[in-house]
Amino acid sequence: MMRPMKLAGDYVLFGNGALEYLKGINGKKALIVISGGSIERSGYLKIIQDYLNEAGIESKVFRGVEPDPSIQTVLKGAEEMKKFEPDWIIGLGGGSAMDAAKAMWIFYEHPQFKTLEDIAAPNVIPPLRNKAKMICIPTTSGSASEVSRSIVISDPEKHIKVGIGNMEMMPDIALLEPGITASMPEHITADTGIDALTHALEAYVSNRANDLSDTLAEKAAIEIFKYLPLACRHGEELLYREKMQNFSMIAGIAFTNVSLGIVHSMAHTVGGKYGVAHGLADGIILPYIVEYNMQSEEAKKKYDNLAKILGGKDFAEMVRNLNKELNIPANLKEVINNDEDFEKNLEYLATIAKNDGCTKTNPVIPDVEGFKELFKKAYYGK
Questions:
Q1: Is the pTM of this model over 0.90?
Q2: Which of 100, 118, 94, 119 has the alpha carbon at shortest distance from 31?
Q3: Confidence band (pLDDT; 50, 70, 90) for 7?
Q4: Fewer beta carbons within 10 Å, N or C terminal of the chain?
């Protein structure tokens, strides 16, 4: 049976001036969740707070979300929410800040939950929005958390990352202001952008893919291929920033409905174990999985279609060439560089990846031995 599709929350606003929407929202208090100080230095945090003030909304800032948001930080933020009692929660930042804000929202709305396990599968997220609604404002172009039902939360004490998906976590409002991404350094632009490309490609070949998701994913993949190198080389050009922001969001709408694949299963796993940044891990692993997925006739047909549209023949090789252009390493060894530990943990890595929620929608589903071979290829570059 076809799964129901949800294309966003209440509103998605994009382009110059999107943030001005905040001047017209109704409410009393907003808690803004951010990572570091870059959003403050850019002046955009003040702009957002000024707009909220104009709407008659008192705002407070929760700072310090890590690049991989931890359950400890999430619980701390939820406690702040319980004290402040906001009716709006604003995730402002990259995927980490937005994911953390969405996770805090769950614990704020449902104080009976105390641990990461309480909200992870097979448990189901109860209805939200009894206390607050969610706005997400991305400062990077990659995670698409602003239009997704998904979050990834880590437990550094257990060296794991847990992906959680539920349509309740689809933000109510997404505001995409291109200027807010203009200060991103080139390597962050590359890493987050290749994450967006991975979202588009995995949604495109997902075993849940359909005509609507294909329309979104194919267009997103083509345009990200075009605009990501330009955004990296000419970060000050707002047209390129806007295009990356928009097509990252479109890829997000696709994958939040038809899910992802084993690039993400493996990236979640090496990120949890070795602290490899998520987008970077995606980019390194992606060409190996494109090759692997060619075993599926339907996936091969779709990859060949993309290659033809983009003016090439071998799509895996095109991804490798894009990675070179973006200075993304060719293998995991370049970022982990611990052969002994990698080999010792290979069974563990393969088992965790096999059990990841993204695995079941890959067009070809490996067993644990298959994952071990894929990890070795991605690690050694074979």
A1: yes
A2: 100
A3: confident
A4: N
Beta strands 150-155 and 160-165 are antiparallel
Through-space distance between the first and last CA atoms of the chain, rounded to whole angstroms = 40
Give the per-residue pLDDT at 23.
97
**Taking a C-beta distance cutoff of 8 angstroms, is the pair 279, 197 a contact?**
no
Residue at 217: amino acid letter: A
Q: What is residue 121's predicted lDDT score, i.e. its pLDDT? A: 86
341 Cβ contact list (under 8 Å, min separation 6):
none
Nearest to 227 by CA among 246, 214, 254: 246
CB 332 within 8 A of CB 285: yes
Taking the C-alpha atoms of residue 110 and residue 55, their distance in angstroms, rounded to an integer, is 28
Q: Give the Cα-Cα-Cα angle 123, 5, 316 (nearest 5 degrees).
A: 90
Quick check: 217 and 190 in contact, CB under 8 A?
no
pLDDT digits (tens, 9 = 90+) for 148-193: 998 989 888 887 778 898 999 999 999 999 999 998 999 999 999 9
Task: Report d(CA 253, CA 270) in Å as an integer.
Answer: 25
With both helix axes pointing from N to C terminus, report the angle between 297-309 and 186-205 in degrees, rounded to the nearest 10.
Answer: 130
226-248: b (≥16 Cβ within 10 Å) or e: ebbbebbeebeebebbbbbbbbb
Tracing tokens 């104080």 back to the chain, one arrives at 111
- Cβ-based burial of 79 (10 A; exposed 0-12, middle 13-18, buried ≥19): middle
